[in-house]
Amino acid sequence: MRRKWLALVTLVAVCFGVLTPALAQTGAEEAIPLSLEEAMEIAVTNNLEVALRENAIGKAKVSLREARTAADQLDTLMEFSGATLETLQAVYVGPKAAETNLRLAELAADYTKKGLYMAVEKAYYDVLKAQTEVALKEAALDRAREQLRLAEASVAVGLAAKSDAMAAQVGVTSAEVQLATAQNNLEIAMMALAKVMGRDLAERYALTTEFSFAPVEEMDLDAYLAELMEKDVTVVGAREGLAIAELQFEQVKKMYTPNVYTYQQAQYDLIEAQLKYEQAKTDLVQNARQAYLNLKTAEEAYRLLEENVTFAEETARLAALRYEAGVATRLEMEQAFDRLNEAEAQRLGMLYNYNLAKAQLRYGIFMGSGAGTTAGGV
């Protein structure tokens, strides 16, 4: 059974060995130095959605001028011909609705940029994470080879059975497969970064911004939320929608009594707008507070994982010495090194999560929440 497993892992390693050089050739061109700020600038320059949002602002400005002109003309006309619900809406509701459309167009343009920044930052972090994973897999391969060396030495002096060396060889082959997988994932992450920047997918980059743990100062969450309420697309849209519903109801009350369907419908529209506004505020507060809790949790978890890696390194070192001295089994040594590999992977994952959590609060864009937000921040 052990030989079958060794043969299977070796076959997979050979397959990856054939594919990896081919992948490397696709990125053989010289890597382009790239900072996170440069990546963002390139993405904004090449992104068509940003240009479309800016164009929408221009259109909204034209619509606002048109609505104001129409309101002035109808206001004069009403002095002679009297008012109808339609003319009241055009005079009092139309300009407000056009102002709202302009405000939302401006917020949408800002949101699009910050959403793009967030996407670039995530893609940039994905490459940094993939690069670190390659380095970790290379270190894991070196450890597996050292375990093989120790096993072969122990077999040579009669301290271990030949099966120890065979099992250690399986470990080396498995580590080679994992390294090849990590290298492939790095290629994929690099292409994703090029794509979000609007660049040629064949380009390769030498990232110059470090992937590091930099704790943030305690933030005034209430002040942050107050700022966010003025810039969040969903909240502002709901608030302006409520203002328009109130204006609409005022015009209806001028023309109809409560027993008329039009009056009742406008009243229900107002209630609906009030509920939507409250729901939008509640969702935003929940998303922001949850993101902040995630950030603080990741911060504390990373510190603990740092300590865990240090402990795992020492445990693995001692396990290797004990095996070399013949007082520990190969399995005990292997398990110690596996725990070290796992601890390093967990630390990397938490570092990645921490930096993403910071970015979400900085841009006011909460991934997976369904709320579009645009705030300055951390």
What's the topology here?
Blueprint: H1 2-26, E1 32-34, H2 36-46, H3 48-81, H4 85-156, H5 162-197, E2 205-207, H6 221-229, H7 233-255, H8 261-324, H9 330-363
Helix pairs in contact: 1-5, 2-4, 3-4, 4-5, 4-7, 4-9, 6-8, 7-8, 8-9
List keywords for this structure.
2 domains; disordered C terminus; 378 residues; Outer membrane efflux proteins (OEP); single chain; 9 helices; mainly alpha; elongated; disordered N terminus; 2 strands; two-stranded parallel ribbon
Number of helices: 9
Distance between the ends: 56 Å
User: How big a fraction of the residues is strand?
Assistant: under 5%
CATH class placement of the largest domain: Mainly Alpha
Helix and strand string, N-terminal first?
HEHHHHEHHHH
| Structural class estimated from helices and strands | mainly alpha
Within the CATH hierarchy, at the fold level, what is the topology of the largest domain? Answer: Outer membrane efflux proteins (OEP)
| Sheet with most strands | 2 strands, parallel
Shape: elongated
Q: Specify the helix fraction band.
A: over 70%
| Overall pLDDT score | 88
